[in-house]
Amino acid sequence: MTDDLSAPPTLTAHCPDDLLAMVPLVIGFTPEDSVVMLTFAARRAFHARVDLPPPERPDLLDDLSDALLEPAERHGVRLVAFVVHTEDADLARRAAAVLVAAFTGSGIEVIDALHADGLRWRPAVGQRAGLPADGVPYDVSEHRFAAQAVVAGRVVHGTRAELARSVAADPERVAAVSLALEEPPVGPVARGDWRAVAVWVRGTIAHHIEHRTVPSDAEAASILLAITTVRVRDAAWHLMLDAPVDQHVELWTDLVRRAPAALLAAPASLLGVAAWLAGHGALAWCAVDRCREHHPDYSLARLVEDALQQAMPPETMSGGWHWEDGLDASA
After folding, report:
1. 65 in helix, strand or coil?
2. d(Cα 135, Cα 171) in Å, to the nearest integer?
3. Which Pfam families match (predicted)?
4. pLDDT reading at 318 higher than 70
5. Running DSSP on this structure, what letter comes out for residue 56?
């Protein structure tokens, strides 16, 4: 699993403690059994997390390195730092050695490589004079970056599993929306007037974005039903280009948690787009995963997945089309 190949918040690191404190803020959760790559001096900075292979599969470390090196080369990264999160010191050293060799061999300077076990950090490659033999204690919760994140409203989850639970189905709310879906459609949906449907969907979403509210069960049911039509879905997507994206993340998170499985593909994919645009790559992956649980071949989820894997900048989806394109009565 590769997470958060996306734009990071702006933070400046001067020491190992700063690097360690950056990780959960730019990834969105505290990693376990992972390598995190922090990039600097690039055409477009991005950060990434990759699962460590099992200790008995060191042959997979080259694949891990390739998964990080390819986007780093494509985006002109000149400086990187690695933090290997694991309790297995031997695996951390082996992973760091492979990464440092691959990146320096490609002309990318590795400014630091740390092993963090959750309580202490130590160099993952070589020795460093003056450090305790058992590592240096650290606590990222007390770091100034954590305070900045609180002020900025950036949520950090304890683990990736906790982050995934934040977009999991809420059975009671799914049942309420399912009940609302039993009512026959009315208005433009009943008439098949898809342009009018798109206007209503956009207006309803814009209203809730402006007022920081969530749709009623009836509204949620109508939105979820309407965006099964691709052009209506894309009209909702287009709204993200003109409004605070974090508020779209909140709205689509709410709708994903309320969506019946049969209607999950479109809202989960739209959450993936919103999270990607907002720089929340790990959340975008969780949204893609939710879509793939029930709709593994949904094209927009695949588009988000490709964007994340290739560290594509969000501005690649920032224009060139209008929400009314292709929206006629037959949509």
Report:
1. helix
2. 45
3. DUF4192
4. no
5. T
